[in-house]
Design goal:
311 residues, mainly beta, Pectate Lyase C-like, six-stranded parallel β-barrel, 2 helices, 23 strands, disordered N terminus
Length: 311
């Protein structure tokens, strides 16, 4: 794990050096964010959104070496990205090829799913005859790779971002060296047990910290599977339909290395913490209360140090 963390720090230092003299483009509401992103696609740079509501009619495609940010670090609610057409069924922010060195920060993403669109039963997952907007995710970064060495998305940071009323708030796959901080993800969902406030799959060396995940009408606050070197610190997951924080190795997968510390899971519809098929790490100083199927459910944990928790 030390090798991974040091490698991440070294690459981050080079990355920030490149941004020191990067071109910055400012976009006011009503103007094209995508054109600004595309202008910087070869050189990298910063796209700063001015305060107001920015309507997008198709997914914003993020390129490598890009910062997309709201203009006010102190108030993410002043810059809002929303669907620009009725019935939009695409992620509001996504990638169409592997990306590296990307920061999204200081903004709000507000989908337009109605309450009745966010509460379909689980059996609807494979029903193609019902026009569900499963594609309306807040942020969806997807790439290949099922290990730290092969994950194609690299050095992804999402900081000080709120996502509401999407099928999933944030969904990341095939990525490494990921930092997710100061998030406020709530009221995101679609099909029970399958759509969550945040879902990470095949993500390695990931840090989730100082964030809150609540009121998903169908899923977990945080759902993590098929990943490794998972760090979750000082987060709260409450009032979600299913689990608060789920870390699970599925179909024989072993999650190698977790650090889960200082988190709170309250009043979730199933377990507060669900930890399964994990090797190595620590779970400490966490609190779980009032979760309907138990505050902690665990299975097949090997070499995981559990201490100072209140379950």
């Amino acid at each position: 794990m030390l090798r991974i963390i040091l490698g991440s720090i070294m690459s981050a230092g080079i990355w920030w050096g490149l941004y020191a003299e990067a071109e910055e483009i400012t976009v006011v509401p009503g103007k094209s964010i995508q054109k600004a992103l595309d202008k910087l696609s070869k050189t990298g740079g910063i796209v700063t959104l001015k305060a107001g509501v920015h309507k997008v009619s198709s997914s914003l495609l993020i390129h490598s070496n890009i910062i997309l940010q709201g203009e006010l670090a102190r108030d993410r609610t002043k810059v809002v990205i929303v669907p620009g057409k009725e019935g939009m069924n695409q992620p509001l922010i996504t990638n169409n090829k592997p990306i590296h060195n990307v920061i999204i920060r200081n903004l709000t993403i507000r989908g337009d799913l109605r309450d009745e669109e966010k509460r379909y039963p689980a059996e609807y997952l494979r029903n193609k005859n019902i026009p569900m907007r499963t594609g309306l995710l807040g942020i969806f970064f997807n790439a290949g790779g099922d290990s730290y060495e092969t994950a194609q998305n690299q050095n992804i940071t999402i900081d000080n971002v709120e996502v509401i009323n999407c099928s999933m708030g944030i969904h990341i796959k095939g990525s490494r060296d990921v930092t997710l901080s100061r998030l406020n993800l709530h009221d995101n969902g679609m099909i029970k047990k399958y759509f969550h406030n945040m879902y990470l799959r095949r993500v390695f060396n990931v840090f989730v910290k100082d964030s809150i995940f609540y009121d998903s009408p169908t899923g977990c606050g945080i759902n993590i599977s098929q990943s490794g070197d998972v760090h979750i610190e000082n987060c709260e997951a409450r009032d979600n339909f299913w689990r608060g924080i789920r870390i699970y190795g599925e179909k024989g997968w072993i999650v190698k290395g977790i650090h889960v510390a200082g988190n709170r899971c309250l009043n979730n519809g199933d377990a507060g913490f669900l930890l399964c098929n994990i090797e190595g790490g620590e779970v400490l100083d966490n609190i779980a209360q009032y979760n309907r199927a138990g505050n902690l459910r665990q299975a097949n944990l090997r070499g995981v140090d559990m201490k100072k928790n209140k379950f």
